[in-house]
Amino acid sequence: MRRHLAAAAALSFALFAAGCSGDAQESTTAAPTPVTSAPAAGSADGSAAPAVSAPTAAAGAAGDAALSKDTDAICAQAARTSTSFGTNFAADYQVLRAAGKQGAEAKSRATEKVDRTVDGYAFALLDMSKLAADPTVKKALAAMGAQVTALKSDLGKIDDEKLSELHAKLDKACGKS
Fold first, then answer.
1. Any idea which UniProt keywords this protein has (predicted)?
2. What three-state secondary structure class fits 121?
3. Residue 29: Cβ-neighbour burial (10 angstroms; 0-12, 13-18, 19+)
């Protein structure tokens, strides 16, 4: 138990340090501007009802297209996602280890939480790989996503060393090694 606690602490520190080791000024992208609603023409009873406009799929696709050209933004987002995953996984895995003593239901809930965390990270990596225009970044993110998906079958293999390898792969693809 102490080994896992020490590994979780080291992992959190390593990922935090790796996340902070990027350029001093990271590229960011602005969020899409929300569509404003305009008042509709008066209704039959004389009251005015606001027209509601929902963002369209085309607007989302345009944002994705713009982001796909910004490799630095994708790399920065992937680094933030990796750091966040390391922190969340370490906490969730500690809860899972402790849940074994609390009964089958607690262990089942903790296992589901860890699985969701791992699935979310793998999905994010694979999704970013689809957006990336740079072939090296695209390939690295896809490989990382596949590797994380494969590790889900044996959560004990996800440790600070494995996460450091994943982060190093990302750093290399993004030119930060």
1. Signal
2. helix
3. middle
Q: Tokens 């225009």 — which residue? A: 133
**Residue 81 within any structural domain of the chain:** yes
Residue 43 located in a structural domain: no
Bridge partners for 48 per DSSP? 42
Point out which residues pair with 76 in neighbouring strands: none
Beta-carbon neighbour count of residue 13 at 10 Å?
12
β-pairing, 39-42 vs 48-50, is antiparallel
What domain range includes position 158?
2-22+71-173
Nearest to 81 by CA among 4, 174, 177: 174
Measured CA to CA, the distance from residue 97 to residue 57 in angstroms comes to: 42
Q: Is residue 139 part of a domain?
A: yes
Confidence of residue 72 (pLDDT cuts 50, 70, 90): very high
Percent of the chain whose pLDDT exceeds 70: 61
Rounded CA separation 50/42 (Å): 10
